[in-house]
Design a protein that fits this description.
The structure is a homodimer. The longest helix of chain A has 20 residues. The first copy, chain A, has a 6-stranded parallel β-sheet with strand order 3-2-1-4-5-6, with helices on both faces. In chain A, strand 2, helix 2 and strand 3 form a beta-alpha-beta unit. The first copy, chain A, folds into 2 domains: about 120 residues, NAD(P)-binding Rossmann-like Domain (Rossmann fold); about 220 residues, 3-Layer(aba) Sandwich (Rossmann fold). The first copy, chain A, has 13 helices and 12 strands. In chain A, helix 1 packs parallel to helix 7. Chain A is of the alpha/beta class. At the A-B interface, helix 8, helix 9 and helix 10 of A face helix 8, helix 9 and helix 10 of B.
């Protein structure tokens, strides 16, 4: 991860479950072999699988010292709290990791390398602090350039935060590759960057430059790909993150979108007091995305990714059938049943584009 | 301005005309008595009025030394180039101003106070460098809180950048005050901050926190106002700035909007190569804004502000009549003919809200 194969201890103190430790779960799912232990004193002694449904027998330990037996060389701060501030108790653990000569990788809004004490510790011990959310120095303004790339650009969009946009993009990417399609994945958030070893955390970019950053990544990825899968962020319907989501939509200028939703979620997650907005019907959400994308370039939602992690097997199948019936679109839970139907819809659209291009 | 009444020299080197020197023109229009000279060597010897249509007899001089006779105490960097970088030749002028003991006020994306040489100079001379685009340290995430304030929130929105959103908000604000309505103006860009002495340049805020910053300002302004006029930024149809515009829309949760457009402009201004998007009909733009606002809270466009600065008197009147006929909305050029019809539409809506509230 990020420069070399690592032996990671994942810090997820107090929040290591399937829904709250988003970064830790993502890394466990896609970089499993690099994780040696998860730190969460409230769940010590259990396995990763038992706590979060991923990671098999990887042990959960109470503190960094407990992880030492598994010889980690890197501490990964696997949390992304609203506001991005560092829980004060975690600071001690990070300092301890640096004291032990470990690298530290983090995706916080506040940058650990800018903390004088931590930076001095890292320098003294010859360790690296990697803040993956730090925006690139080069800034550009979006110009709708991504609408003109030859590759087919696909963006995952969502009814809310934390519904499965990154996971869907990664699963579809893998399914396309398995079908022999040259697919590229563009990471736009800290967990995606942990997994893909590159990308830009767009929510940490100054607002004027978000669509430009996305455009640059898409144009770059499109050079050597037939399909570019772009990880979505937030939701155009989220009171806090709608601007980030629209910048992504207009920076990527996707030819197609996959709408992600968590089955059973009825209200948008808002982190402060006050009534949370209701989540609209998926048909309305599809329509709003196609309209908003169309302000820049025409785009269609090709399928739905339904996160059924809160449902049992029977409920999951019913929820999927229900949405497929209502929307007339292919619907899957890519984690539970694979992303094949979504990949197939994309390939069909890709062939259609090629026929159109050939006859033009 | 910003702490005291100042004697400003406006730096607008090479670009002091009505359309390119946006900040200088705004300051000249609304803080006229504080401006002693404008610096633009390519237009030296003329008056501000002759160059930019505002500022009366205020002289345009070739360099800072030429302004010295008018005893400026502050240099205002009156430009906001795309990307926000500092033209290298301007650096010398800024250093010279500090050497002379003048304060420097700037609205660039790069912060002058972070430049070691300039900061050292300012410290040595006891001068201040004010970077008005520097975002506030406190960060929050938008929660749709502004939808619940008692005051009526009005946002100016646009078909593009640089069409008159700030000017319209300021003119309507003044017209409301003249009608005895307690109105507050919320500045969201560097020129607005120069004029209002407070505000946040939202395009310089990290994208996750834009709607939160707007929400905070609106809630604060609403405490002591009947109407809160929020300065819009960019356009939801602009490939580079759509995210900023949507964050503003969803952070402010306006009850009403005023759509601003420059008569005769057919394509969105994009700063790089590539075909610029066509500007849609104003009816479509109204509809798109009402829909996008509605994702958070219902909102209506109450009127149009048509910037007719490129037209002669007859053309201006025809353009206004044409749009009024097509949209069925009140249409004015507030700079040319005053903002009264827009203020009247707002007051009518305010009374309607009060009747609804009283009968509820």
């Amino acid at each position: 991860m990020l420069g070399k194969t690592r032996r990671l201890a994942l810090l997820a103190e107090g929040c290591f479950n399937a829904t709250d430790a988003k970064s830790a779960v993502g890394v466990l799912r896609y970089r499993t072999s690099e994780v040696v232990a998860v730190i969460d004193s409230s769940r010590a002694g259990r396995t990763a699988q038992a706590c979060a449904g991923v990671g098999g027998d990887i042990p959960v330990v109470a503190h960094l010292e407990g992880a030492a037996a598994f010889e980690p060389d890197t501490l990964l701060v696997g949390i992304a709290p609203p506001g991005g501030a560092l829980p004060s108790s975690w600071r001690t653990v990070i300092a301890e990791a640096l004291m032990r000569g470990m690298d530290v990788i983090a995706g916080l809004h506040m940058f650990l390398a800018d903390d004088e004490e931590l930076a001095a510790l890292a320098a003294a011990k010859g360790c690296m602090i990697l803040d993956v959310r730090r925006p690139p120095a080069a800034r550009s303004i979006g110009t709708r350039l991504a609408a003109n790339v030859d590759a087919m650009v696909v963006l995952t969009v969502g009814s809310d935060c934390n519904v499965g946009k990154m996971t869907t993009a990664l699963e579809v990417h893998a399914a396309l590759q398995a079908m022999g399609v040259k697919s590229a994945f563009v990471a736009t958030g800290q967990t995606g960057i942990f997994i893909a070893d590159r990308g830009v955390a767009v929510d940490a970019v100054v607002s004027d430059f978000v669509s430009g950053a996305v455009e640059q990544m898409v144009v770059e990825a499109a050079r050597d790909a037939e399909v570019v899968l772009v990880e979505g962020q937030g939701s155009i319907h989220h009171p806090g993150y709608s601007g980030v989501a629209l910048s992504l939509l207009h920076g990527a200028c996707p030819d197609a979108m996959i709408l992600c939703h968590q089955a059973g979620r009825t209200h948008i997650k808002v982190f402060e007091a006050g009534p949370a907005p209701r989540i609209r019907s998926l048909i309305e959400i599809v329509r709003d995305h196609e309209r908003a994308a169309g302000w820049m370039a025409p785009s269609r939602v090709l399928g739905l990714s339904l996160n059924t992690c809160a449902l049992d097997e029977l409920e999951a199948k019913r929820a999927i059938e229900h949405e497929a019936h209502r929307t007339g679109l292919p619907v899957v839970d890519p984690v539970r049943y694979g992303a094949q139907p979504l990949a197939t819809a994309i390939v069909r659209r890709l062939e259609e584009r090629r026929r159109r291009a050939a006859s033009a």
